[in-house]
């Protein structure tokens, strides 16, 4: 029996009220994970009747207050934007942050495919109305760009309107984009605050983390390589990225990367010793 089939049968055996009661205690990231667990849960959590579950999940968040879900996104879409690392285009893990203005999370390839960049001094206009300022019709981030899909959708609506209705449409779109930019600014501030708090928490726990890693590496025979230059400043700079990326990972996952780092340090130490020996031998030939 497939995992999806097992999950579906398990869900069917639990009363909906009980499932809902459990879900009401979760945060959006957890609800999002459950919605991807099987078709039954996905169907249940993406229907309109389950909207209150997502609303409560956002209310359960601790820490800095996340800006509310914008009116043109569903709670499911907002949770996906904020808490998922998947590219909105291909589903891979992107190497770029969330674009809060465009409300997308693209990898480098999908960003090139799905956005149009332009010179800020020469903004493009709609082909059907060159007088229409595209920046007042389509969401554009600080780096001048917009989504292909937005341009297509706006152009289709705009072409179907008469001159009077076009003015009203432009005004409505402009007001909506102002709200979008305000919301994006609030999201960036929220994200920056999270990073600030995470950095503070890591710095507080850093000595204990370093000591634990130091002990494990020493037990594996890497004691000399932990601090090549004999000072704490080198230790900080050499493995800062490893600690930051892996501080919350299990040691089993950290071990290969840390041992590669130690092996690199061992080579560095050997090269340094060889250079010193060469220097000394050239100065004091009688001693060698």
TrEMBL record:
It comes from the Eukaryota. SUPFAM superfamilies: F-box domain. Transmembrane segments: none annotated. InterPro entries: F-box-like_dom_sf, F-box_dom. Residues 8-57 form the F-box domain. This is F-box domain-containing protein.
């Amino acid at each position: 029996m497939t995992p999806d089939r097992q999950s579906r049968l398990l869900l069917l055996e639990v009363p909906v009220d009980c499932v809902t009661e459990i879900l009401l205690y979760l945060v959006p990231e957890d609800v999002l994970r459950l919605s991807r667990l099987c078709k039954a849960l996905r169907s249940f959590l993406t229907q309109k009747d389950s909207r209150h579950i997502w609303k409560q999940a956002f209310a359960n968040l601790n820490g800095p207050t996340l800006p509310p879900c914008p009116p043109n996104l569903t709670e499911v879409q907002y949770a996906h934007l904020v808490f998922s690392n998947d590219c909105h285009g291909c589903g891979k893990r992107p190497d770029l942050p969330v674009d809060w203005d465009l409300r997308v999370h693209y990898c480098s390839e999908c960003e090139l495919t799905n956005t149009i960049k332009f010179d800020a001094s020469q903004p493009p206009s709609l082909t059907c109305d060159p007088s229409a300022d595209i920046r007042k019709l389509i969401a554009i981030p600080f780096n001048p760009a917009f989504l292909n899909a937005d341009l297509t959708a706006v152009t289709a609506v705009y072409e179907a309107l008469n001159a009077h209705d076009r003015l009203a449409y432009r005004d409505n779109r402009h007001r909506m984009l102002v709200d979008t930019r305000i919301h994006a600014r609030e999201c960036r501030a929220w994200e920056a605050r999270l990073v600030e708090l995470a950095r503070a928490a890591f710095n507080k726990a850093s000595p204990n983390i370093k000591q634990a890693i130091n002990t494990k590496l020493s037990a594996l025979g890497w004691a000399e390589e932990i601090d090549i230059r004999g000072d704490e400043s080198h230790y900080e700079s050499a493995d800062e990225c490893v600690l930051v990326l892996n501080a919350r990972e299990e040691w089993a996952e950290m071990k290969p990367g840390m041992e590669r780092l130690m092996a690199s340090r061992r080579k560095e130490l050997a090269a340094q010793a060889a250079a010193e020996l060469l220097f000394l031998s050239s100065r004091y030939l009688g001693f060698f």
